[in-house]
Task: inverse folding
């Protein structure tokens, strides 16, 4: 049985004592060294981050499928999103990633006060992000640009929204019968014209552009067909709300985690030799940031 | 006679809270074992109810609606509450750290959390039964699930979503444990093959389950907020749901079977007293199965309207999985060759496995081939194939593993003759239940149907009788296993002459597994061990007393 084997390390008994190099109260009983514990913690966190990436990957996949199937819906929907607020939020999250990195650095140097300050700044960033998101969501609710069965865009949308909708409504059909009418005579031209329609700035009346390039009767026909095609425009907003909603949920979870390590840091639980929780929470926050770095261009900047 | 060590993991502390809040991987393993076996019992009773209804065409004893709910819950509970968590959660948790020579898994708190998530997920599933159940089948296909079965689906899917977290946490824990907690000397190629199998499983758990998570989340959002993403009426794509679902659920069948394959490697080597033939091939074949498993999900959708080209590619890729699986089958057979085989209960299960899993694997070829699948799709042939690999594979392997490690876990021996009888009954009952389903499936009996033409009656009746034989076998098994806890002979530390580390510590193991980190050698070195008739176990360092079977080592 076991006693047939010579002890691996003489005098290295039990689980709580006798590690030979001083006992650290932060070392869990089943690890041999602090180094082993840190490595295990980090590997665990990276694996967890991989699962988070895969969770969002499902949504990115859904996004890709629906955008490939309905490009016009995405180009239409994107114009309802505010590049300004999206950009502000991107900057806020990038700065908060910076402050959390500073917090980890401060923790690794044993600077307890700085750790708390930088973590607090990160929370301010997270709150700012959520505040901006709330402004954007309120805007969607007031304009009725919501998901699925709750998609009822109002006609009293502000001016900056009225023009792009007119432009999008005139998008030439791409795969229905009307497609032939538009595309067959001037194959390349139709594509170019389609591009120009999409790229129309919000404040330029769409009709002016189309008048110059499309025969009126074709435009009218295409318009009727496009209205039919845009009946599923809610899909964009469904995906928008699911993606940003799940991301927002991660921001909230991240905030809770940051508050937890901030309280522990304030209580003096961490030192230069033990700051693993700060490190792990920092990694998580970077992921939250990273997901947004993909969400922002995919939702706001595709026009 | 050896006695039960006074301080073991069972007696280390007492009281309800010492179990409910335990961080000891062994106690968590035992809690998982009891809970998953309860789920197995519930789902088994549901299966008997389904088979009873199918005994005669038309109404036998329940209505069509009830029948739909019965088979849905049978599938959902068996898959999500039993097969996926059972082997990693129960046997993996108990055995893995000891086999590794570690004191615990890397994250004991996460381990306990994963158990409680299982409990919450299970409670939601049970709650949904009280609420009227669900009749979508365990696959929750849209748009039916989001349009007609909304109420039930939200509850069950939320439960499965939570179970997914449980599964991820277990997998993550095991990956980190195997990477970071191996003692000195335990190199990758000295890992017992059980650990290679659990490791591969854990990778799939970590990498596939999040996709199930987002799928179920979208299903919940679709059902509650009506975003229309899977609803063709609203421009959504129901086939996308199937892609999402099978992207997880095909790898998930490897989450179910890989731990079973892992157990069989241990059983075959230990009970034929030979090092496993082609260790590295068996080890890498687990990883290969895990990797190939991610590339074949489309073979569930040959008739769902995906393009012919995609179906052809998925069909071709599907055959790739058979290569590492066949490597395992051949290497196990080669291990048996000229081994000193002991026909004890665990080994009988292992041999049963070779037979039933062999049939399950070979019938998979008919379903992986595009042309034959179009004929066999959604017939009882699929049901039979699935049960031959899942029950004939994973469950039989789990039963073998349970009988193999029962003395280690409980410190008691069970009644061997009764155990052999139960194994025989399982073998007969299982094959009677499911073999005829191949026949009626190929004759065109569709799966999930409540009613059938009278020509199929005889097949259904044979199948139902088989399921009753299985029920008898399981009642018998429960009887002698529970009796062994109270009246079973005290188990020696090493009743089978096993060579892996869990047999080096006492039965049941002490709280900390090993007082001293054990020295690690080759995993399957059976030399220098001898049978001691006084303790009924195998011991090192008695070269004079040769046991009944000590040859066969290299």
Result:
């Amino acid at each position: 049985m076991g006693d047939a084997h010579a002890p691996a390390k003489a005098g290295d008994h039990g689980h709580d004592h006798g590690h030979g190099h001083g006992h650290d109260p932060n070392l869990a009983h089943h690890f041999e060294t602090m180094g082993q514990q840190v490595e295990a913690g980090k590997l665990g966190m990276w694996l967890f981050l991989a699962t988070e990436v895969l969770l969002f990957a499902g949504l990115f996949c859904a996004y890709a499928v629906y955008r490939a199937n309905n490009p016009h819906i995405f180009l239409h929907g994107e114009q309802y999103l505010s590049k300004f607020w999206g950009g502000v939020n991107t900057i806020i999250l990038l700065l908060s990633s910076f402050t959390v990195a500073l917090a980890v650095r401060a923790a690794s140097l044993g600077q307890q006060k700085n750790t708390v300050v930088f973590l607090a700044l990160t929370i301010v960033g997270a709150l700012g992000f959520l505040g901006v998101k709330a402004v954007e969501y309120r805007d969607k609710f007031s304009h009725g640009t919501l998901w699925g069965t709750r998609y009822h865009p109002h006609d009293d949308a502000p001016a900056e929204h009225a023009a792009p909708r007119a432009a999008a409504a005139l998008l030439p059909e791409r795969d229905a019968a009307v497609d032939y009418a538009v595309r067959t005579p001037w194959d390349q031209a139709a594509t170019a014209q389609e591009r120009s329609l999409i790229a129309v700035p919000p404040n330029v009346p769409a009709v002016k552009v189309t008048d110059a390039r499309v025969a009126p009767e074709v435009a009218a026909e295409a318009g009727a067909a496009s209205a039919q095609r845009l009946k599923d425009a809610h899909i964009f907003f469904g995906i928008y709300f699911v993606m940003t909603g799940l991301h927002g949920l991660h921001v909230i979870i991240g905030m809770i985690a940051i508050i937890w390590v901030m309280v522990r840091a304030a209580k003096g639980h961490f030192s230069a030799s033990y700051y693993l929780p700060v490190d792990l929470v920092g990694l998580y926050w970077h992921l939250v940031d990273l997901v947004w770095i993909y969400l922002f261009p995919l939702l706001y900047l595709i026009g | 006679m050896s006695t039960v060590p006074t301080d073991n993991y069972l007696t280390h502390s007492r009281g309800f809270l010492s179990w409910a809040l335990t961080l000891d991987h062994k106690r968590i393993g035992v809690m998982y074992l009891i809970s998953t076996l309860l789920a197995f019992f519930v789902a088994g009773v549901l299966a008997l109810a389904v088979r009873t209804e199918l005994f005669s065409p038309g109404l036998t004893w329940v209505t069509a609606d009830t029948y739909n709910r019965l088979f849905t819950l049978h599938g959902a509970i068996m898959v999500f509450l039993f097969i996926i968590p059972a082997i990693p959660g129960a046997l993996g948790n108990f055995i893995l750290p000891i086999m590794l020579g570690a004191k615990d898994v890397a994250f004991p708190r996460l381990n306990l959390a994963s158990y409680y998530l299982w409990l919450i997920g299970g409670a939601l599933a049970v709650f949904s039964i009280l609420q009227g159940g669900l009749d979508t089948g365990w696959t929750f296909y849209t748009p039916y699930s989001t349009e007609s079965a909304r109420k039930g689906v939200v509850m069950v899917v939320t439960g499965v979503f939570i179970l997914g977290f449980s599964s991820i946490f277990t997998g993550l824990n095991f990956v980190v444990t195997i990477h970071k907690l191996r003692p000195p000397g335990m190199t990758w190629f000295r890992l017992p093959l059980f650990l290679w199998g659990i490791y591969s499983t854990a990778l799939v758990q970590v990498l596939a389950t999040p996709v199930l998570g987002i799928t179920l989340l979208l299903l919940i959002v679709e059902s509650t907020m009506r975003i229309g993403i899977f609803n063709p009426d609203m421009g959504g794509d129901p086939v996308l749901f199937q892609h999402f679902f099978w992207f997880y659920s095909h790898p998930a069948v490897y989450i179910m079977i890989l731990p079973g394959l892992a157990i069989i490697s241990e059983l075959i080597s230990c009970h034929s007293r030979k090092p496993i033939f082609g260790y590295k091939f068996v080890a890498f074949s687990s990883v290969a199965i895990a990797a190939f498993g991610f590339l074949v999900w489309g073979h569930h959708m040959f008739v769902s309207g995906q393009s012919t080209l995609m179906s052809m590619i998925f069909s071709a890729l599907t055959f790739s999985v058979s290569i590492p699986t066949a490597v395992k089958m051949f290497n196990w057979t080669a291990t048996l060759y000229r081994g000193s085989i002991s026909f004890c209960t665990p080994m009988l299960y292992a041999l049963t496995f070779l037979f039933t899993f062999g049939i399950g694997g070979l019938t998979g070829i008919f379903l992986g081939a595009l042309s034959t699948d179009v004929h066999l799709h959604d017939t009882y042939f699929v049901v039979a194939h699935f049960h031959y690999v899942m029950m004939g594979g994973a469950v039989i392997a789990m039963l073998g593993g349970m009988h193999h490690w029962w003395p280690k876990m409980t410190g008691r021996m069970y009644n061997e003759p009764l155990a052999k009888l139960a194994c025989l009954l399982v073998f007969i009952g299982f094959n009677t239940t499911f073999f005829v389903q191949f026949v009626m499936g190929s004759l065109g009996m569709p799966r999930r149907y409540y009613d059938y033409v009278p020509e199929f009656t005889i097949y259904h009746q044979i199948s139902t009788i088989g399921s009753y034989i299985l029920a008898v076998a399981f009642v018998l098994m429960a009887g002698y296993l529970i009796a062994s806890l109270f009246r079973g002979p005290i188990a020696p530390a090493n009743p089978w002459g096993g060579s892996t580390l869990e047999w080096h510590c006492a039965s049941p193991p002490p709280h900390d597994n090993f007082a001293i980190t054990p020295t690690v050698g080759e995993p399957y070195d059976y030399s220098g061990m001898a049978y001691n008739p006084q303790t009924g176990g195998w011991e090192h360092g008695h070269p004079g007393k040769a046991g009944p079977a000590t040859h066969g080592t290299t």
